Amino acid sequence: EAGVAQSPRYKIIEKRQSVAFWCNPISGHATLYWYQQILGQGPKLLIQFQNNGVVDDSQLPKDRFSAERLKGVDSTLKIQPAKLEDSAVYLCASSRTSGTTDTQYFGPGTRLTVL
Amino acid sequence: ELKVEQNPLFLSMQEGKNYTIYCNYSTTSDRLYWYRQDPGKSLESLFVLLSNGAVKQEGRLMASLDTKARLSTLHITAAVHDLSATYFCAVSGNYQLIWGAGTKLIIKP
Q1: Is A103 within 8 Å of B100 when comparing Cβ atoms?
Q2: B44 bridge partner residues
Q3: Would you call A84 helix, strand, or coil by DSSP?
Q4: Nearest residue, CB atoms, A105 vs list B45, B48, B88
Q5: What is the CA radius of gyration of chain B?
Q6: Using one digit for the tens of pLDDT, what is the confidence trace for B11-28?
Q7: Which B residues, 63 through 92, put their C-beta within 8 Å of a C-beta on chain A?
Q8: Distances from the Cα of A70 to the Cαs of A33, B8, B35, in angstroms?
Q9: DSSP string covering B11-75, please?
Q10: CB–CB of B44 and A48 under 8 A?
Q11: Measured between CB atoms, which of B41, B93, B100 is closest to A108?
Q12: Which of A3, A21, A92, B12 is the most exposed place for a label (fewest CB within 10 A)?
C-alpha cells in the first residue's frame, strides 16, 4: 500500500512570496490533515478535511493560509504572503475515518524556509 | 483545554540501559498515541492505547496507559543505537490530536 505522498520536499522562498504544497493521501482514506511542525516542537493541526469538507480549521491563519481538497482526494495548502515565522515542516497525514479513532499516517513533509 | 506534557525533553543514554519517557495530559481522553520521528523524516505510528491499564509492546519498547493518573509511559529496555529518535505522545481531544513537544532520545554505543 502506497503511503502519503507530499511535494515538494524542500522549498526556500523570500518573505512576502507565495508557496503551495501538495498532498496525496493513502487510497481510501476519508480524512486528511495538514500540520505545521516548527523545529523542536510537536505538530500543530492547521486544517482537517473529511472527504472534501472542512472539519476543523480553527488554527489556520486564514489571512495568509488556504487549503482545499478537491474531489475528496488530493489536497493543496497555500501560503500567501509568507512570513519568516512560517519556516517549518508542513506535514500531511491521512486516516480512514475522522476524529481520532483511527491512526493517522504521515507523509514525509515539506520543509519550508522563508528568508 | 487539553494540554500534553512530555518529559524529559532530551535524553542521552548508553546502550544496554533502561529508561522511561513520561507523557502527562490535563483532561480525560479515550486514547493516546505514541509516534517516532527520525531526523529529517516523518512520523511513524508506534502504539495506540485505548483503555486504562492498556499495555503494548514491540521489541524493546513498551507503552502503558493510566487514565486515572492521566499518564502514559514509554519504557525502553536494553536500549540500542537504532532506537535513537524523537518520540511523541499525542492525546485524543475534541476531534483532534493534541501533541506533546517530543522527547529527543540519543543512545550512545
Answers
A1: no
A2: B36
A3: helix
A4: B45
A5: 13
A6: 999 999 999 999 999 988
A7: 88, 90, 92
A8: 14, 41, 29
A9: EEEETT--EEEEEEESS--S-EEEEEE-TTS-EEEEEEE-STT-EEEETTEEEEEETTTTEEEEE
A10: no
A11: B41
A12: B12
Q: Do A100 and B92 touch (CB under 8 A)?
A: yes
- Pick from A64, A65, A75: which is nearest to A30 by CA? A75
Per-residue pLDDT tens for B36-72? 999 888 899 999 998 888 899 999 999 999 999 999 9
* pLDDT for res B42: 86
Model confidence over A6-48: pLDDT tens digits? 999 999 999 999 999 999 999 999 999 999 999 888 999 999 9
**Residues B105, B108, B109: CA angle, nearest 5 degrees:** 145
Q: Which of A12, A24, A32, A23 is nearest to A88 (CA)?
A: A12
R_g over Cα of chain A: 13
State the Cα–Cα distance between residues A77 and A23, nearest whole angstrom. Answer: 8
Residue A99 has a pLDDT of 64
Question: Tell me, what's the pLDDT at A100?
Answer: 65
For an interface test with B, which of A6, A100, A110 has the most B Cβ atoms less than 10 Å from its Cβ?
A100
Cβ–Cβ below 8 Å for B99 and A103:
no
Phi then psi dihedrals of residue B81, to 5 deg: -55, -35
- Residue A10, beta-bridge partner list: A111
Cβ–Cβ gap A100/B100 under 8 Å: no
